[in-house]
Design a protein that fits this description.
mainly alpha, 18 helices, binds phenylalanine
């Protein structure tokens, strides 16, 4: 038993124990910390706004709780069974071509964190804006202009993008338990509370009712292939699955944890924060007369207007953006951790070198992404700017594709061991085991393929 916890590490052929999460709640909070991020508060509301509100919400929830949850469980299992980075895990458990799935994950981490850090930088900038009283003289429309002026600036967003990346690197250098677990324990409860406060204001704004209807009354005629595709991509992005982040986090687990319940917890926390964010933002969008299809700026335009219009807004606004920045940070950390765990496990780099090296590369890829929203707007490929291209490539292609292979792997090539892993050798009950296996073998691969193909 003890030997299982022991791994070969570093260039010295020495036996050192692999770090692991300090407790069950610590692990769940860290996994939820990875899942809850800009995907919930920045991306989900504008996607719901763009793709028809309630119909999108229901599709997203349905996909998250079937395919999403199943793939997440697969990832935890692969990670814990192998106790390795995604590439090493597939190599150790099966070999053959399977490590390619891990490589795709590492590639996805580079693609995602490059643009994610740009948006993470926006949250940092907004903390300062909110502290220095940008709300005081802002009408809703002016606050909207403030956002576009900021992201289109060639210099300022890059500065904050760099700052966000340095923060991410610093947490990752600190290591798995200490850095990540501690932050998540404070973050999630605080985030819940402030979202509830915002909810109270948003829902009582005059004109909010239209937004509530938009978000909660489904009109399934709006559900086209593009909306379906967006809902699936969002489920993957928001749950941090399809690229090995949860394999990586699972690799730092000890054997006792009941993985199916951890999966349900993580999925529920993540989707409920997305749901609440939508319920804050869409009613406010309608109340202030913004366009729900406004796109990536929606959260950054709408929320300042809500804060400007509420008692104590000047206090809550910076507080909210601090929490959003931390939520983004705990997700960014899990993205960087995928690459760093790989470089440490397989390439014998130190944690510090690995984090600075990969983080710097991501920073440089992020520069053209940021510029593509402003001065380089006219340069497009397939009709998309570089920022949108990175987003599309990762969420709509790499993650779902990764999900197909992860589900196939567990369903067809690792099923017996996976069931043992899920129940810790029959110590725990797992009543949905057969349903889960069926999803992994058939539903997930077929449904994802179908949605991907129809979205093209
Ligand atoms: N789930 C994170 C969010 O919603 C983003 C993320 C995607 C993190 C993939 C890790 C892996 O913000």
């Amino acid at each position: 038993m003890l030997l299982r916890r022991v791994e070969k590490r570093g260039s010295v052929d020495m036996l050192t124990p692999r770090e692991h999460w300090s407790s069950r709640s610590g692990f769940i909070l860290a996994a939820a910390g990875s899942a809850v991020g800009l995907g919930n508060i920045w991306k989900f509301p504008y996607l719901a706004g763009k793709h028809g509100g309630a119909a999108f919400l229901i599709t997203y929830l349905a996909l998250a709780f079937t395919i999403g949850l199943s793939v997440m469980l697969c990832e935890f299992i692969i990670g814990r069974a192998a106790r390795k980075d995604p590439i090493g895990a597939f190599a150790k458990l099966k070999g053959g071509l399977w490590p390619i799935v891990g490589f795709m994950g590492i590639a996805a981490a580079f693609v995602i964190l490059s643009f994610y850090s740009v948006v993470g930088g926006w949250t940092l900038a907004y903390i300062i804006k909110m502290l220095t009283g940008a709300l005081d003289n802002g009408s809703a429309q002016e606050l909207g202009k403030m956002f576009s002026n900021f992201i289109e600036d060639p210099i300022r967003p890059l500065f904050f993008h760099g700052a966000f990346m340095i923060l991410t690197i610093s947490v990752v250098v600190g290591g798995i338990g200490k850095g990540i677990e501690r932050w998540c324990k404070i973050l999630l409860p605080a985030l819940f509370v402030i979202i509830l406060i915002l909810l109270a204001r948003s829902l009582t704004l005059p004109g909010a009712m239209k937004g509530i209807e938009y978000f909660l009354q489904p009109d399934f005629s709006k559900l086209d292939a593009a909306a379906f595709n967006a809902a699936l991509s969002q489920a993957f992005f928001s749950l941090s699955i399809g690229m090995g982040a949860m394999i990586t986090y699972g690799s730092y687990l000890d054997r006792k944890m009941h993985l199916p319940s951890a999966t349900v917890w993580t999925t529920s926390l993540d989707t409920s924060i997305a749901f609440l964010a939508g319920l804050v933002i869409l009613p406010a969008v309608f109340a202030f007369g913004f366009d729900p299809k406004a796109g990536p700026g929606l959260t950054f335009i709408t929320l300042p207007a809500v804060f400007a219009d509420m008692p104590g807004g000047a206090v809550f606004a910076p507080m909210f953006f601090v929490l959003l920045a931390i939520a983004a940070l705990t997700s960014a950390v899990s993205l960087l951790e995928v690459v760093v765990t790989y470089l440490v496990d397989e390439k014998n780099l130190t944690r510090k070198t690995a984090a600075w090296l990969s983080g710097s590369i991501m920073f440089f890829i992020g520069i053209p992404a940021s510029l593509s929203l402003g001065v380089w707007k006219e340069y497009t490929l397939f009709g998309k700017g570089f920022f949108d291209l990175l987003d599309y490539l990762s969420s709509n292609l790499l993650l779902p594709l990764g999900g197909i292979f992860i589900a196939l792997f567990v369903g067809w090539f690792f099923s017996e061991k996976a069931l043992e892993e899920a129940t810790a050798n029959n110590q725990h009950s797992f009543p949905f085991a057969q349903v889960w296996m069926f999803i992994c073998r058939f539903i997930a691969p077929l449904a994802i393929t179908w949605i991907l193909v129809s979205g093209l």
